[in-house]
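for the recovery benchmark. tokens below, seq after
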């Protein structure tokens, strides 16, 4: 009798777990609350474009493989304890993605602020009707941000968001409360190229700052030299690294003989990390 595997989340970790588990002879059902597979890769494709990495092509590859391997894919279906109780799977793999972090700064609720969670939710809504390639084109016409933007967060998320906005004619500044700009970017290739490109585009990049307050003028920070200054902005965007999202995993513990959390649900990282984690767990069940 084949092992019944239920995978929750159709992002890179979930799709790879489904592919490998099916290759190993398990009966796999993949659930996703969105109406299309891809998860974070669809979002990343819009922000990063397809010149450097053709993420939509990777999604197409997974869709083809899952179909060939007979994986049952159920889209637009949110899974909870009741669902799992009814399914009675042998293995549950939670690949529901990470959760967005919001910096605790006075004024974070200001109308000027667009959090990464708000922007991602809006983008997911558009992705229900448009492909990433179409949205890339449309964002050159309209974006839900002003002409002058300050990005809170200078890691990979903030730098790629800055590149995206600059290419669409926005004036951008990056501020980071850590000591470095560009953490998470590939050190020997992407990081130096992107930081050099941002520098040539006159993007201010400030590390080691303390976020003081968000006002109607913009973001007030204290620099690492101890100087307080206000960076004027039409929009203040948060681009803080994701945090583990263990709520669903914790609620499903004991609901099946084996329950695992993978990818950003367990430890947020790069897409390649999520794929590797999905493969690792699928090979272990």
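predicted aa per position
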């Amino acid at each position: 009798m084949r092992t019944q595997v239920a995978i929750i989340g159709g992002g890179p970790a979930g799709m790879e777990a489904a592919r490998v588990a099916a290759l190993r002879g398990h009966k796999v059902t993949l659930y996703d609350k969105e109406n299309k597979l891809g998860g974070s890769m669809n979002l990343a494709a819009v922000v990063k474009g397809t010149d450097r990495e053709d993420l939509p092509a990777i999604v197409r590859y997974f869709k083809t493989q899952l179909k060939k391997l007979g994986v049952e894919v159920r889209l637009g279906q949110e899974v909870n304890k009741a669902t799992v109780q009814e399914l009675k799977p042998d293995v549950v793999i939670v690949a529901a993605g990470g959760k967005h972090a919001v910096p605790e700064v006075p004024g974070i609720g200001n109308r000027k602020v667009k959090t990464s969670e708000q922007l991602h939710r809006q983008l997911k809504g558009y992705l229900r009707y448009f492909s990433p390639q179409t949205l890339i084109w449309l964002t050159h016409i309209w974006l839900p941000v002003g002409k002058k933007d300050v990005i809170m967060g200078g890691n990979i998320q903030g730098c790629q968001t800055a590149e995206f906005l600059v290419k669409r004619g926005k004036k951008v500044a990056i501020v980071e409360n850590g000591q470095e700009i560009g953490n998470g970017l590939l050190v020997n290739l992407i990081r130096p190229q992107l930081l050099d490109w941002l520098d040539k585009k006159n993007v201010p990049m400030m590390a080691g700052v303390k976020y003081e307050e968000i006002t109607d003028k913009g973001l007030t920070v204290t620099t690492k030299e101890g100087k307080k200054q206000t960076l004027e902005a039409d929009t203040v965007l948060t681009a803080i690294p994701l945090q583990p999202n263990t709520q669903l995993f914790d609620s499903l513990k004991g609901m099946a003989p084996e329950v695992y959390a993978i990818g950003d649900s367990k430890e947020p990282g790069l897409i390649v990390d999520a794929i590797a984690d999905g493969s690792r767990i699928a090979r272990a069940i």
